[in-house]
Structures are given as structure tokens and as C-alpha cells.
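Example record used in the benchmark description.
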Amino acid sequence: DMEICQLSPVYCHDLKQYHHALKQRNALLKELQKGEGSPLDTLSVWDEQLCNYGRRVMEARKTFVERAGTLASETHAHMTGGGEKLSLQYLPNIKDAEIFKTTLEKNRQRDIALGSTAAGAHKDDIKFLINENDARVYGSQGQQRTAALSAKLAGIEIIKENTGTPPVLLLDDVLSELDGNRQAFLLSRIEGTQTLLTCTGMEDILKRSEAKIMKMVNGTIQ
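Model output (C-alpha cells):
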């Protein structure tokens, strides 16, 4: 969401409207759960809002993940020397945007019992697969970090493509979990992109780079 909002004010507006409708719907569900509040038919108003904005949010996410997946896969292959294949899958909570409203209506009584909306775009997720295996379950910490970096670098490329300007990149303690080859690839890939990289120890590769190194001691930068 953060990545797409940087690229599209329209998406940012749609996402805000979706969450506003979700908040209102959940508040009404809690009232109905207690036997209070507006008539049941009032839910239809918020269902319509969720569907309208939810479909647009889902479509934008699908497009973004497909593009990011292609770029991340290429980056990951280079970073791992071709040893690992990374793919990204967009996992919409409601598989087909066209059945969004039907799903909400079908879940209505359960939602009232729970006092919250159980299905919708707010439940979407992304799956990272390394060599066809779920990285969240089977990936090592180093593999997971490399996959996350590949996705972050893909996001940078998409922003460059759409705006013509590279963003500022913030990386927190990423080098310690990467081997020498992956460290070298990462630093070469972010060359030309303003990057702030924090770490708890000084890696040799940073000493050999042209990076400006600042050390913080007792809260003071030296």
C-alpha cells in the first residue's frame, strides 16, 4: 500500500475511502451485535462502498505485484547467482472482485456475530516463493532477507519508471545476514540511489566503498 500510494494519489484516495467505509461498517456491525443501532438494511450502503473502492484497490494491487514480481525475480536471480528463483503472488482475500458484494451478503450474519468484517481487501496478502516453496515457512533468515531486499529494489525500479526520480532508500542492518557476493551485488545495485544504511558493526565491504561512514557513540554522531 505504501509503495502504490507513492505512485498513485488515486489509489491512496481509494484506499482511504475503503478503510473509512470499513470502519463505519464495523461500527454498525457492533451495534447490530448488541441489538442496537440502525436497521439491518443500512449495511447495504456500506457494502456498496466497500465493493466500489475494494475492487479498485484490488486491481491496483494485482497490477503492482505482477510488475514487482517480475523485477524482484530478476534481481533475486542475480543476487543469488542463479541459485534461487523468487516469485511473488498476490493473494486477494476475495478471489474475484466481481463476487465482492455477494461475499459480504453471504457473511452478513457471521459478521454481525463477530462485530467485524471478516472478508475483503483488508485481508489481502502477498506470498513470497523461493524455488516454489513458501519463504515465510521454509526460507532461512538469510533467504527471507534477500527476498525482502529483492522486493524493495523492485519497488525502487517501479518508482523510477513512473516518476523518473529515484527515491531515498532506507536499509536497516541488512549486510550482516548476507554473504560477500550478495553484499557486493546490493551495493552495486543501489549505486546512484541515495541510501541511508544503518548497521551495528562495520562490514569490510563498507570500508572499501565510497560511502560516507558516521559512527554513533552514546547518541552522538562522530
